[in-house]
Amino acid sequence: MNLKIILEFDGTNFKGWQKQKDKRTVCGELEKAFSHLIEGTFKIIGCCRTDSGVHALNYVCNVKIEGNLKLKCEKLKKALNSILDEDIYVKEIELVGEMFNARYDAKFKLYRYRILTYPSPFLIRYGFYPKIRIDFKKLKEIEGIFIGKHDFRNISAKTEKSGICNVFESYWIYNDSYYDYFIKADRFLYKMVRSIVGLMILYSLNKISKEEIIEILEFKRKFIPYIVPSKGLTLVEVGY
Fold first, then answer.
1. Residues in the chain, pLDDT under 70
2. pLDDT at position 218
3. pLDDT, tens digit, 9 for 90 and up, residues 198-218
4. Bridge partners, residue 109, by sequence
5. Do 122 and 234 fall into the same domain?
6. How far apart, in whole angstroms, are the C-alpha atoms of residue 99 and residue 167?
7. 118 and 72 in one domain?
8. What is the DSSP string of the chain?
9. Do 121 and 87 fall into the same domain?
10. What's the domain count of the chain?
């Protein structure tokens, strides 16, 4: 049996998705909840890893179950949500084919990064307030430079074997309380989105030029990534 599950979670008090010994993670909490409901073995496969503090509106995972599951999907959803803490919620559960893999079958992921225009007590857990004035027009000037296939290893936070990512969308939206950056791609490197946002902030402050950003993407210039805080990052959608 193979179940596809869509989760929403507030990442503030999680050490990311991936299960870790003696640390509270999203996968770890979901695994504990399932252990109360399933007799036998099961394996949870996430669509991607998330860093500590990163949130998700529609995180996708699948659960391969070898044991007995007596509950139907809707009852299982209610049972899981009755066990899980308030910062994680199961939105949907459906029975899928045995070959479905939440990680390897994903065609794209859409992330949002939120920059606050003031330190709103209601938004501060989900956005980054930089304490400096950022020129939104400058952010818009540079948003499209990342679209297309690029090697993003130069702005990743760790060494990757392959850095080619195909970025389908990259744009900013303005709101009185915040600036939202959306980026959709077939894959992402470690802390790639937070580094891209950092680059655009540096550009808005005239700390770096458009030409220099192009040189960084083309490996003609070395760059120490400026990585914005994780709490502003949210996984919005995963496409299959």
1. 157-160
2. 87
3. 999 999 999 999 999 999 888
4. 185, 238
5. yes
6. 27
7. no
8. -EEEEEEEE-GGG-S-SS-BTTB--HHHHHHHHHHTT-BS-EEEEESS---TT-EEEEEEEEEEE-SB--S-HHHHHHHHHHHS-TTEEEEEEEEE-TT--TTTT--EEEEEEEEESS--TTTTTSSB--SS---HHHHHHHGGGG-EEEEGGGGSSS--S--EEEEEEEEEEE-SSEEEEEEEES---TTHHHHHHHHHHHHHTTSS-HHHHHHHHTTSS--------GGGEEEEEEE-
9. no
10. 2
Q: Which domain holds residue 232?
A: 108-239
| Residue 229 confidence (pLDDT) | 96
Residues 21 and 114 in one domain: no
233 lies in the same domain as 139: yes
Task: Indicate whether this model's pTM tops 0.85.
Answer: yes
Same domain, 121 and 235: yes
Asked if 237 and 61 count as a contact pair (C-beta separation under 8 A), the reply is no
Asked if the structure places residue 101 within a domain, the reply is no
User: Are residues 37 and 135 both part of a single domain?
Assistant: no
Calpha distance 226→198 (Å, rounded): 5
pLDDT at 3: 95
Catalytic residues: 51
Residues in the chain: 240
| pLDDT for the residue 160 | 65
Query: Tell me, what's the pLDDT at 112?
Result: 98
Place of tokens 């308030």: 86
3 state SS of 185: strand
